[in-house]
Amino acid sequence: MDLVFRNARVIDGTGGPSYRADVAIDDGRVAEIRREGAGTGPRPTGTRTLDAAGLALSPGFIDMHAHSDLALLRDPAHEAKAAQGVTLEVLGQDGLSYAPVDDATLTEVRKAITGWNGDGSDIDFDWRTVGEYLDRLDRQGIAVNAAYLIPQGTVRMYAVGWDDRPATRAEIQRMKQLVAEGLEQGAVGMSSGLTYTPGMYADDSELTELCRVVAQYGGYYCPHHRSYGAGALQAYEEMVSLTRDAGCALHLAHATMNFGVNKDKAPDLLALLDDALDAGADISLDTYPYTPGCTTLVAMLPSWASEGGPDAILTRLRDDGTAERIRHHMEVIGSDGCHGVPIEWDTIEISGVSDTGLADCVGRTIAHSAAERAEAPWVTARRLLINDRLGSTILQHVGHEENVRQIMRHRVHTGGSDGILQGCKPHPRAYGTFPHYLGRYARELGILSLEETVAHLTSRPAARLRLPDRGLVREGYRADLVLFDPDTVAAGSTFESPRTLPVGIPHVLIDGRFVIEEGRRTDVLAGRSVRRTERRPSARPAS
User: Which residues form the Amidohydrolase domain (predicted)?
Assistant: First the structure.
């Protein structure tokens, strides 16, 4: 064999009890598992043998919600995720990413999500289609595997533009064609960002038609739905009903119940999901194990202020009368960008800026910065939006710990970092989600057993992605594996030092090759695009 781990505590991803075993790796796959005390034959031997006594051996972790779309190209080593034991990320989230596009759409989407991924000035955008983007990842070489969701907001931008109106029949057909092409080229499903423009301008009938295409290809729909605040439960109900009508699998992105209106309301969400599951719905969800959220400051604006795209937003912000209307919607009415809840500026902390000259804002709330200037918070926020050209990211401190804990216990829960790697002070979830689950929530708090936690992070997401040979430590499966110390594994990242790497994860392998060895990043780029392999539809959607 190429490699043998001796005396490992195997946590195989099923959720069942762990066991001691020797595990042999050959040609990138798990070739033999010999349990302690099983049989009398010889133990497997290898070109290299590693004593794993005291360590747990598990499948590699699958990040079901990642924003590494440009980070993988900018920094293929990708230590932020590889060091956590992540061996596969799902990109194209929240309805906004970089394929499929034409030249004009690419220009606009780069502006729209500068806060998530930078402006891309350091990237050669030599692709336009989903397949070409996945090819680029493979050609360049990446540290971890990557799957892709077709971003519905980008598709709408491509076919309709930034107008807040129903799509025409011809535009819907064009969007269906773009979704079908992306799925044929390897996308695993479709995402939406229904509090982000222009995706939020789509009504349910439009989304249902697109989801029917996704269902024909065996993919899944991953919506950031229309509200995580006021009306959150109704927003979840909308997605459940929509996908049931379309016959499409549903995966709820960063599923939580935030803001004061939803304190202690996780049981209401879980009851809704249980009723739907018991009735035959195909539903899963992901969460990150933290209470604050993270997005862009411009996302807080009302949707009418974002119609027309980034340049139109800046024009409105510069006009005093229009800016006052925006303020009134945000502070008094509760804008749809802020989930229908009047904004509380003391919960909005700036985590990153595109213009380094504005770095003194980072780490402070809008309320704090405004008080230092002896001005109203909206004045501070408006100035920052304009001067940073909408590129500022925020932490939004509106979550509830008990909601987080209850949702992560659910039978269809998986892990997703929602990690934005951009900015001076990113959310620590980008560097710490998976060890935080293992160290804080499993070992310290006992919210889940270690075996259950690993299943949530491995086999469950692999099943959602329909991956036939990943997510378990099993003979014949790919050797995407993590060795960690159950007694010490922990996130190193904190809100004060968010880029600190985790501890207690000495080895990470992808296809049997060490990407992390003895706690250090190797130069191996073993990742590749993971493309949808499900059935073709019986008839391609009409163009």
Answer: 49-516
